[in-house]
Design a protein that fits this description.
Largest sheet: 6 strands, antiparallel
Distance between the termini: 63 Å
Order of helices and strands: HHEEEHEEHE
Number of helices: 4
Number of strands: 6
C-alpha cells in the first residue's frame, strides 16, 4: 500500500490559481472580423464625386482629347490650348484634368455635335464636369 500524502497549503493555493481553459469558440470564427469591418464602414465618410463648372476664355483650340459617349465625354488628355492655359492660372481643384467627365457644354448636355460646336466657336466656353473619386488598389500575389 502507498501512503496517502495530503497536499500542503501552498500546493492547494497554487491549484486554485490555475485558470480553467477557455471554452472552445462557437459559431463562425469570422464573426468578429465582420463586426470590425461593419464598424469601420460606419465610421468612413461617404465620398461623392465632385461636380463643378469652369469658364474657359476661348482664344484658340481647347486642347482636349476626349472619348465621347452618349451622355458625357471622358477627358483623356489636356494638351496645348485654352484649357491648359486656364489650368495654369487656377488651383488644382479648379483645373480640368484627365479622367474628368464632361457632362455639359455651354449649358447643354454633351454630344458629339456639341463638342464640335464648342471647338469651332469663338468666345468663352462653359464646361460642367464631374471629377470621379479615384481609388488605388494594391494586389499582392502570395508565392
Amino acid at each position: 500500500r502507498l501512503p496517502v500524502v495530503e497536499p500542503s497549503e501552498p500546493e492547494l493555493k497554487a491549484q486554485e490559481e490555475i485558470p480553467s481553459p477557455a471554452p472552445p469558440p462557437t459559431g463562425d470564427p469570422h464573426d468578429g472580423e465582420q463586426d470590425q469591418l461593419a464598424e469601420k464602414q460606419e465610421k468612413e465618410i461617404v465620398e461623392l464625386p465632385m461636380t463643378f463648372e469652369v469658364v474657359i476664355p476661348k482664344t484658340g483650340t481647347l486642347g482636349l482629347m476626349c472619348d465621347a459617349r452618349q451622355s458625357f465625354a471622358h477627358i483623356m488628355q489636356v494638351g496645348k490650348g485654352c484649357v491648359q492655359d486656364y489650368n495654369s492660372r487656377v488651383s488644382k481643384s479648379e483645373q480640368v484634368l484627365p479622367d474628368d467627365l464632361l457632362i455639359e457644354i455651354n449649358g447643354s448636355p454633351v454630344s458629339r455635335e456639341g463638342l464640335k460646336s464648342a471647338a469651332e466657336s469663338d468666345g468663352d466656353v462653359r464646361l460642367k464636369l464631374v471629377r470621379p473619386i479615384q481609388r488605388a488598389v494594391k494586389i499582392t500575389r502570395s508565392s
